[in-house]
Automatic annotation (TrEMBL):
Keywords (A to Z) from UniProt: Membrane, Transmembrane, Transmembrane helix
Compositionally biased spans, kind Basic and acidic residues: 263-272
PANTHER family noted in UniProt: INTEGRAL MEMBRANE PROTEIN, UNPLACED GENOMIC SCAFFOLD UM_SCAF_CONTIG_1.265, WHOLE GENOME SHOTGUN SEQUENCE
Positions of the UniProt region annotated as Disordered: 256-280
Protein name according to UniProt: DUF7702 domain-containing protein
């Protein structure tokens, strides 16, 4: 273990705020899971990444090992995909109420995401073997894929925005949450792309200038997550899923009643072995 400088700096203060606020978001995600609401998985896992990343950043105060910095690096990189899927989940909810786009527009991001995860794993392996967090072919390809993913989501949302008047109140509300989140996500994406293109350490999310990180990463991410949390509190759980579960219970109850009635009828028609049978 290599010791850090033991100084609590500006970037560590941001990490402390991340640790507290995203831990609260994680607790709310657990609450949403219990209530069978939208968004619990993406909010929960994203919050875990940010809590772990913030913990690693605070750990660098006393431990300057490259593996600790690599942990911060990977957590910062992976979380953005979950924000995208949170916005996609909101649009998917609206699409289940009013058919607006073909389901393939929700399938394309999944394919891109799996490729992005593979590149992130390669980026972690590369970063953990060196003290340099400069852009690599893995991180550049990853953010290139993410930019393509963002454009797909932006185009999908445009289709929903054109049909906004056809949606009920609750679906309009979740779509407006998407409308708030996409510009903020563009700011977050621009922050990462600047560094991947220029290599200027100022824009590095791990060891760069804390002020651009605060304005273009922490605050936009926090605003997106808590805007979505507010939206989830304003709408009911997805009616389709609740209906499916109710229908399953009703079908099982019906099957049990049918089985019981059928068994009763069969017992009525069976001869009583203790009663003498009439001869022909």
């Amino acid at each position: 273990m290599s010791g850090g400088d033991g100084v609590f700096g500006y970037r560590h203060g941001i990490a402390t705020a991340q640790l507290i606020l995203f831990f609260v978001a994680l607790c709310l995600a657990v609450f949403f899971k219990i209530g069978h609401r939208n968004g619990w998985f993406c909010i929960g896992v994203f919050s875990i990444f940010r809590v772990v990343g913030a913990g690693c950043m605070l750990g660098t105060i006393t431990n300057d090992a490259s593996s600790v910095w690599a942990g911060v690096f990977v957590c910062e990189s992976l979380g953005m995909v979950l924000i995208v899927f949170l916005l996609i989940e909101f649009m998917d909810r609206a699409n289940n109420v009013v058919k607006t786009v073909h389901p393939r527009w929700f399938f394309y991001p999944q394919v891109i995401t799996w490729a992005d995860i593979g590149l992130a794993v390669g980026g972690f392996a590369s970063a953990s073997k060196t003290d340099s967090l400069a852009p690599t072919k893995y991180t550049q390809a990853s953010f290139g894929l993410f930019t393509g993913l963002y454009l797909i989501v932006l185009y999908t949302f445009w289709q929903f925005w054109r049909a906004m008047s056809t949606f009920p109140r609750e679906e309009k509300l979740v779509l407006r949450c998407v409308g708030v989140g996409l510009p903020l996500l563009a700011i977050r994406t621009a922050y990462s792309l600047i560094y991947q293109i220029t290599g200027d350490r100022t824009w590095n999310a791990v060891k760069g200038n804390p002020t651009p990180y605060l304005v273009m990463t922490f605050l936009p991410e926090l605003a997106i997550i808590y805007t979505c949390i507010w939206g989830i509190f304003q709408v009911a759980p997805p009616p389709r899923k609740a209906k499916d579960k109710r229908n399953v219970r009703e079908r099982l109850r019906g099957y049990a009643m049918i089985g019981s009635d059928q068994g009763s009828r069969e017992r009525e028609h069976q001869p009583d072995p203790t009663r003498p049978q009439a001869s022909v």
